[in-house]
Task: inverse folding
């Protein structure tokens, strides 16, 4: 059986594509624009199976858009700053740039072999000074707008990587990158004020619902964590007024004590002098716990009595004030009113410390004081003054808030869980923060014409993490004249989190060579928002939230005309092996390069696309790339069998095959648009089988319908198996290349079903369903209806007064 030489074919077409450059996006094209984006990789090695999967899926859509006649922007670059390169540089005693560039070169070569339809004229690396100059420029714009600021606080600290982490980078108490247990450290750090946009970020999600995966939208909603409640002011025996944030002001009569976050400055301020030492001792323990641990409900409660009292603003009752770590310093106001009867953590604390419990909502369940189980459901208010007897939670809340507002003792309030984004890192391989610290002028922005602030040359052991930035060691670089007063000053020695780099890269692709500004707003507005963003769900709340935040700021700056950067999103599953995540320790890794050598690019791509819905994990152990290869060869053989000439008049061709072709092409479009790529491939397989049958035992290879079908196969396969598609197209007598020849034309008439179902009603009741031709005449349909046995029975000899016929779907018999 004839087959093609995989390696030779791949080399041949790579040359042709290099020369014809069919995927270069033209900014000035009159065609409608589409922007297909896939998350750019960290260049921490060569491409692996995960990349192979996401690129194969993503490329189906990009290539489909080209075939549908859109001008498509499908760029690729590298997220090249960050820890992997820096750690490798330390290991190998080199500069991170060496490692980065070597990996990028390898990855580009692999992407080209893998035939992803990227426009390579637009590529860049975030570690290029031409790029990070604008990252720094954007930082300064944020700074000018009060959206970048420095503050001293207890931050998440990774003892392994010796750097701070954003809240989003701490997963279940561990560093998301290295897995080390994260601790807290008091440091001065740079933040972006993402909290200013909390409500906006929430509102925007409504717009994305339906085109973004539900789990991502939900994850972002939860992360932003909006809640509604009230601020309530308690006066302390020390004379201080302190506010608490509560979502249940209606339970105020049940507040039997107050708790202040042990590590909040407030605790040390209000503590009775006799209790100060106890608080200090307790704090040593508190600093060891992560926020996640602290909030865990099943954790034994600990705390310190601060030796003071607070006055309940509605009941006038005096209650004790405690400090504990289950209250977080940076959430709400850092202090709570404890309502143990209706909040489990408060109840656990009350029981541990012997504090009183008072039920204020009777839910019909047993009293929490006795059961140890707090009740959070609805019920009748009790022990609650003016609320007693009321049942309705909403009006209970309203009543208390009105009262507090009238007395100036509180007000309705909205709270967000979202914290400001900590962006400074004490590492080398990132964009330096473009600020100069002057003893006279304070924080001074580096003037725009002095950007970029380039990294000084450091390598190997100089980069070893030591808790402060390695840049501090480069004194020649650090010591500068203050841009304002000219006096001695020092550069900020921190670098920015890599998530800053990736928050705006999608804009840069629209005008990647722009050197007067980060991007050309007209081009950005022409290409964006991105029509489809494909990537891993692990970025649900990090990258995808930060990029949305940047877009809103850029919109407020008047630089972009939209507020959401990514209109639609698709998350691929993982490629696993033998039921498990691939890992070095399990030795179950699958080497992409080997798979490509054995089966060829097309077979690997086809296997990944055909494996199942894109969101599902793919177990490589259950895949058969050799089966994919056999299918591709079967498809390819069709192109050698066709004997009619290009341009043959297909209208005279075999009708059955023509119908199958038309239906396949039509369905393939719908399926790609619904991201059901695997089903699309299945349809192409059916078409290949039908064509083979037509050649061998049907209309024969000379029938123009066979050419039509085979050409359709080539075009549909160009979305998944580009090499095979090109080979087929060439064998069918066409000039290269197939990738932008256009989606096959479908004669709508061929899509009409062979039979439709007509419903027959007698006295308004359905009595029969008839299979009729779609073009059945009204007279024929009426006759058929009246002749039907069930209809005859329903009529029971009654006189037919009127027959309403709506061919081909309905006959209504009135008696
Ligand atoms: C009294 C109360 C009674 C509460 C009740 C709940 C149930 P969300 O929805 O997450 O915003 N809280 C407030 N600040 C806190 C902090 N810094 N650390 C830990 N917990 C804090 O939760 C708001 C509720 O979480 C608040 O409402 C408060 O407890 C607690 F039956 O106040 B509540």
Result:
């Amino acid at each position: 059986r004839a087959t093609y030489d995989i390696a030779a074919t791949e080399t041949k077409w790579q040359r042709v594509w290099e020369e014809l450059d069919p995927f270069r996006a033209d900014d000035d094209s009159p065609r409608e624009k589409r922007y297909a984006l896939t998350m750019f990789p960290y260049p921490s090695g060569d491409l692996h199976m995960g990349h192979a999967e996401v690129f194969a899926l993503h490329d189906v859509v990009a290539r489909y858009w080209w075939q549908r006649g859109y001008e498509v922007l499908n760029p690729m670059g590298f997220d090249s700053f960050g820890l992997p390169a820096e750690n490798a540089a330390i290991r190998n005693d080199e500069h991170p740039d060496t490692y980065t560039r070597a990996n990028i070169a390898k990855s580009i070569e692999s992407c080209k072999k893998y035939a992803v339809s990227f426009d390579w004229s637009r590529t860049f690396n975030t570690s290029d000074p031409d790029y990070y100059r604008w990252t720094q420029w954007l930082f300064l714009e944020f700074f000018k707008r009060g959206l970048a600021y420095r503050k001293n606080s207890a931050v998440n600290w990774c003892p392994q990587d010796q750097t701070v982490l954003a809240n989003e980078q701490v997963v279940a108490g561990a560093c998301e990158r290295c897995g080390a247990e994260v601790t807290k450290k008091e440091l001065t750090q740079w933040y972006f004020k993402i909290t200013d946009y909390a409500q906006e970020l929430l509102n925007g999600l409504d717009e994305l619902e339906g085109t973004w995966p539900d789990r991502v939208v939900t994850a972002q909603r939860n992360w932003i964590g909006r809640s509604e409640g009230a601020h309530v002011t308690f006066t302390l025996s020390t004379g201080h007024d302190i506010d608490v944030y509560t979502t249940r002001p209606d339970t105020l009569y049940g507040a039997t004590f107050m708790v202040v976050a042990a590590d909040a400055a407030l605790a040390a301020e209000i503590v009775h002098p006799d209790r100060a030492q106890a608080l200090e001792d307790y704090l040593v323990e508190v600093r060891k716990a992560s926020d996640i641990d602290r909030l865990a409900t099943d954790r034994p409660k600990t705390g310190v009595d601060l030796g003071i009292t607070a006055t309940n603003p509605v009941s006038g009752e005096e209650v004790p004030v405690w400090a504990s770590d289950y209250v977080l310093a940076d959430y709400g106001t850092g202090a709570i009113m404890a309502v143990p009867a209706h909040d489990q953590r408060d109840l656990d604390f009350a029981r541990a410390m012997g504090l009183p419990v008072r039920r204020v909502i009777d839910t019909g369940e047993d009293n929490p004081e006795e059961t140890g189980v707090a009740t959070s459901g609805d019920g009748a208010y009790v022990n609650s003054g003016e609320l007693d007897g009321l049942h309705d939670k909403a009006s209970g809340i309203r009543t208390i808030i009105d009262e507090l507002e009238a007395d100036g003792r509180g007000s309705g309030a909205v709270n967000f869980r979202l914290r400001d984004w900590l962006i400074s890192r004490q590492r080398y391989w990132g964009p330096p923060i473009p600020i100069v610290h002057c003893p006279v002028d304070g924080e001074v922005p580096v003037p725009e014409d002095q950007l970029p602030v380039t990294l000084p040359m450091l390598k190997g052991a100089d980069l070893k993490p030591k808790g402060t930035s390695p840049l501090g060691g480069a004194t020649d670089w650090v010591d500068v004249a203050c841009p304002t007063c000219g006096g001695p000053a020092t550069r900020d020695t921190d670098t920015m989190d890599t998530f800053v780099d990736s928050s705006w890269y999608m804009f840069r692709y629209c005008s990647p060579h722009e050197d007067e500004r980060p991007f050309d707003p007209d081009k950005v507005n022409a290409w964006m928002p991105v029509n489809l963003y494909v990537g891993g769900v692990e970025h649900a709340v990090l990258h995808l939230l930060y990029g949305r935040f940047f877009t809103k700021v850029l919109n407020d700056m008047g630089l972009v005309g939209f507020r959401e950067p990514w209109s639609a999103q698709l998350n691929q599953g993982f490629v696993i092996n033998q039921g498990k995540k691939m890992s070095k320790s399990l030795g179950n890794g699958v080497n992409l390069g080997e798979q490509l050598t054995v089966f060829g690019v097309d077979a690997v791509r086809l296997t990944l696309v055909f494996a199942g819905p894109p969101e599902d994990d793919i177990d490589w152990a259950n895949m058969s790339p050799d089966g994919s290869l056999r299918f591709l060869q079967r498809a390819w053989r069709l192109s050698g069998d066709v004997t009619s000439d290009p341009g043959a008049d297909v209208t005279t061709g075999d009708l059955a095959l023509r119908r199958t072709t038309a239906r396949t092409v039509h369905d393939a479009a719908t399926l790609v648009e619904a991201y059901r790529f695997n089903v699309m491939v299945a349809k192409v397989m059916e078409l290949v089988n039908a064509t083979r049958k037509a050649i061998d035992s049907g209309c024969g290879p000379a029938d123009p319908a066979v050419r039509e079908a085979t050409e359709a196969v080539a075009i549909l396969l160009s979305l998944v198996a580009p090499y095979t598609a090109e080979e087929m197209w060439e064998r069918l007598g066409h000039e290269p290349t197939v990738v932008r020849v256009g989606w096959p034309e479908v004669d709508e008439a061929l899509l009409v079903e062979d039979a439709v179902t007509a419903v027959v009603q007698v006295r308004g009741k359905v009595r029969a369903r008839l299979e009729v031709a779609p073009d059945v005449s009204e007279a024929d349909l009426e006759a058929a209806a009246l002749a039907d046995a069930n209809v005859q029975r329903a009529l029971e000899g009654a006189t037919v007064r009127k027959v309403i016929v709506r061919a081909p779907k309905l006959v209504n018999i009135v008696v």
User: Anything to note?
Assistant: The chain has a mean pLDDT of 95. The longest strand covers residues 148-158. The two ends are 68 Å apart (CA to CA). The pocket of ANZ is lined by residues 227, 245-248, 251, 261, 327-328, 331-332, 334, 336-337, 339, 342-343, 415 (CB under 6 Å).
